[in-house]
């Protein structure tokens, strides 16, 4: 079946890099996503990567995809207090438009 | 701001009651998907509407139903509310086949007591 797993918590010092990891099971995944959710807010799409790519960089964000191991990571360079949020890994396929989400990783920034 | 608006933002209902949640889609989007996000969990797909018809459904019972209107806005209806229905309900609008351009609303926080 379709499943997305990610660690629940990550603490990082301000200014360091944050790396959030995710694994997924659906071999027919077409798109892999990273969403951000701040307290009391909806979901904000941060970035996505097509399944035939292995890396995508967008300013402070770097996404790495290992399709063989079904492993996705999000690196946030120079982590700031405003990056404190829950980050959701997600995937979708060409079968339909539904997005399958992980349980989210809560990123805590230490001063 | 995504242009996707949901109403109400919060509401409290009693077990057994019925509730209707509303979503206005982003201009130019013809597809609306609904998700349930329980506390501490990721969003779970409920169903999707395209051209006023259900176009895919997740693992939710029939008491979860929906509508889509000609202007592409949508409603989620839940009958016979249960305590476990307490959650944040999110809608996302997109164009068909373009999940990478799905925009989420702020959600409706439903509490069932």
Number of strands of chain B: 11
Low-confidence stretches of chain B: none
Helical/strand content category of chain B:
mainly beta
Quaternary organisation: heterodimer
Label the structural class of chain A. mainly beta
- How far the N terminus sits from the C terminus of chain B, by CA atoms, comes to 31 Å
Rounded mean pLDDT score of chain A: 93
Task: Please write out the topology.
The complex is a heterodimer of chains A (111) and B (113).
Chain A: E1 4-6, E2 9-13, E3 18-24, E4 29-37, E5 44-50, E6 55-58, E7 61-66, E8 71-76, E9 85-93, E10 100-101, E11 105-110
Parallel strand pairs in A: 2-11
Antiparallel strand pairs in A: 1-3, 3-8, 4-5, 4-9, 6-7, 7-8, 9-10, 9-11
Chain B: E1 5-7, E2 10-13, E3 19-24, E4 31-37, E5 44-50, E6 53-57, E7 64-68, E8 74-78, E9 87-94, E10 103-104, E11 108-112
Can you walk me through this structure?
The complex is a heterodimer of chains A (111) and B (113). By secondary structure, chain A is mainly beta. Chain A has strands at residues 4-6, 9-13, 18-24, 29-37, 44-50, 55-58, 61-66, 71-76, 85-93, 100-101, 105-110. In chain A, the strands form two sheets. In chain A, strands 2, 4, 5, 9, 10 and 11 form a six-stranded mixed beta sheet that branches. In chain A, strands 1-3-8-7-6 form a five-stranded antiparallel beta sheet, with no helix packed on it. In chain A, β7 and β8 form a beta hairpin. The radius of gyration of chain A is 13 Å and the shape is globular. Chain A starts with a strand and ends with a strand. In chain A, 35% of the residues are buried. By secondary structure, chain B is an all-beta fold. In chain B, the strands form two sheets. In chain B, strands 2, 4, 5, 6, 9, 10 and 11 form a seven-stranded mixed beta sheet that branches. Chain A binds chain B through residues 4, 31, 33, 41-45, 48, 88, 90, 92, 96-104, and chain B through 2, 4, 31, 33, 35, 40-45, 48, 55-56, 58, 90, 92, 94, 96-100, 102-107.
């Amino acid at each position: 079946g379709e499943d997305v797993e990610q660690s629940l918590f990550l603490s990082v010092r301000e200014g360091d890099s944050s790396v959030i990891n995710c694994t997924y099971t659906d071999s027919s995944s077409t798109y892999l996503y990273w969403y951000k959710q701040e307290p009391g807010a909806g979901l904000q799409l941060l970035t996505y990567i097509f399944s035939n790519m292995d890396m995508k960089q967008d300013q402070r964000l770097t996404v790495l995809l290992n399709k063989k191991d079904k492993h996705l990571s999000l690196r946030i360079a120079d982590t700031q207090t405003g990056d404190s949020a829950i980050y959701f890994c997600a995937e979708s396929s060409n079968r339909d438009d539904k997005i399958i989400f992980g349980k989210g990783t809560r990123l805590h920034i230490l001063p | 701001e995504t242009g996707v608006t949901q109403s109400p933002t919060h509401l409290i209902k009693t077990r057994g009651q019925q509730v209707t949640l509303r979503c206005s889609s982003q201009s130019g989007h013809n597809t609306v998907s609904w998700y349930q996000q329980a506390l501490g969990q990721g969003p779970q797909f409920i169903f999707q509407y395209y051209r006023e018809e259900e176009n895919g459904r997740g693992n939710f019972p029939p008491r979860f139903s929906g509508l889509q209107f000609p202007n592409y806005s949508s409603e989620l209806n839940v009958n016979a509310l249960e305590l476990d229905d307490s959650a944040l309900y999110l809608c996302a609008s997109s164009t068909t086949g373009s999940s990478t351009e799905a925009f989420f609303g702020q959600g409706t926080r439903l509490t069932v007591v």
